[in-house]
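Quick sanity check, Pyridoxal phosphate homeostasis protein:
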Amino acid sequence: MDTIIQNLKHVQQRIDEACKAAGRDPKEVKLLLATKTVSPERIQQALAAGYTLIAENKVQELKEKYEALKTTPHTNHFIGHLQTNKIKEILRYEVSCVESLDRYDLAEKLHQKLSQAGREMDVFIQVNTSGEESKFGVAPEAALELTRQVAQLPTLHIRGLMTIGLFSAEEDKVRKCFQLLKRIQQEIIALNLPDVQPQELSMGMSGDLEIAIAEGATIVRVGTAIFGQRIYPDSYYWNEQKA
Ligand SMILES: *Cc1c(COP(=O)(O)O)cnc(C)c1O
C-alpha cells in the first residue's frame, strides 16, 4: 500500500535532482503516471498523493478504468498507438490530449469527430527519434510536414512533442534521441505557424528521465518506477500490427 507513495517520493527526488543538475526549476517538469496494466485502486493511491496527470496506452484499459476513476479529479492523456476506429472512445472517456499523434489520417479523422461534437483537443506529435522499426511515431524528417498539415485542422492544437528514447545502456545514444526531439521543437517554433505552440516535450521514462530532463523534458512519463514491474512486456504495447 505504501510502496506507491514511497516510489512517488523517490521519483520526485530523482526529478528534483535532475532539475538541479540542469539548472532548471522542478516546477517546469510534470510527472505523468503511465498506468498501463495498473488497477484503478493503485492509480487512486497516486492520485491521492497529488499526481493527477495519467495516461493509458490502450483504449480498452481507458474504458475499463473509466468508471472507477471518474469521480477523482485527474487529467487523461493518451500515449499509445491510436487506431482510427477508437477515436470515438477517446472522446467519450475524456482524454484531454493525445500525445501519440503520428500520422495525418489519424489527425484528419480526429478532427472530423471533434468537429461533429463541437469540441477541440490538444495534441502532441509523436516522433520516432530512435529510428527503431518497432516503435510508432513519425520519422524525424517528416515531423515538420506533419506539423504543417495538422496545423490546418482547427480543432487540433499542437502543444508539444513526444518520443520514446532508445532502450540502451549507452547514454549518448539515448541522449541523442532527446536532443533530436528538442531540435525538432526549435524548428517547429521557427516555422511560426498559427496556433502551434509545441512548448511541451514529453520524454523520459523510468530508466532515462534524468537524461531527458537534462535535455529539456517538461513531462516525464513514469510507470515501472512507481507501480513496479508489469506482467506484459512493452512489446505488447509497442510492437502490435501497425494499423
Ligand atoms: C509504458 C510507457 C511509459 C513508462 O515506461 P516505464 O519504463 O514503465 O516508466 C512511458 N511512455 C510510454 C509511451 C509507455 O508506453
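Posting the structure with no commentary besides this: The longest strand covers residues 95-101.
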